[in-house]
Amino acid sequence: MHPIGMPSSSPQSERVRQIARVAWAAPCSAVGLFFGALIMLFGGRIIRASGIVEITWRDNKEACGRLANSLRFRAITFGHVVIAVTAEELDRMREHELIHVRQYERWGAAFLVAYPLSGVWQWLRGRQAYRDNYFEVHARLISAEQQSGRNRRPTNSG
């Protein structure tokens, strides 16, 4: 039983929910796989970790070249596909990008419309389209909370 009297979910029902989340985000993941395939054609790397496909162009910034170093973004998520310019940057931004994976699981293909609309809405209000985007604010908040939780040390109250 769940602590508040609700039945806990079985492993089978959790598996069904996970399959549903992956399927719901699948159209967006297909977009990510398309861009990832292009990166792979030019020497990118791909790994699968915890149900997420991670694709990087190079290991570090020095190996990227001028074009990759000039990109305004360093990582982007499409469904269950995270694409980063470098493996170093992916390591640094992984938690933030995984929040976007969860957002895709919630919103499905509508995320491909909701995300840019949120940016346009912020821009029309005189704010920064990226920085003030609801989805970015949410991802920064959750990843900061997760980071802060890991950095807390138990106190001696004895």
Strand content: 5-15%
Low-confidence stretches: none
Spatial gap, N to C terminus: 33 Å
The ordered H/E elements are HEEHEEHHH
What is Rg? 18 Å
Helical percent range?
Answer: 55-70%
Oligomer: single chain
Mean pLDDT rating: 88
Number of strands: 4
Secondary-structure-derived class? alpha+beta
Q: State the shape.
A: globular
Written account of the structure:
- This protein has 158 residues and is an alpha+beta fold.
- It has one domain.
- It has helices at residues 11-41, 66-70, 87-107, 111-124, 134-151; strands at residues 45-49, 52-58, 75-78, 81-86.
- A four-stranded mixed beta sheet has the order 1-2-4-3.
- The longest helix is centred in the N-terminal third of the chain and has 31 residues, at 11-41.
- The mean pLDDT is 88.
Summarize the SSE layout with pairings.
Layout: H1 11-41, E1 45-49, E2 52-58, H2 66-70, E3 75-78, E4 81-86, H3 87-107, H4 111-124, H5 134-151
Parallel strand pairs: 2-4
Antiparallel strand pairs: 1-2, 3-4
Helix pairs in contact: 1-3, 3-5
Quickly describe the structure.
The protein has 158 residues and is α+β, with helices and mostly antiparallel strands.
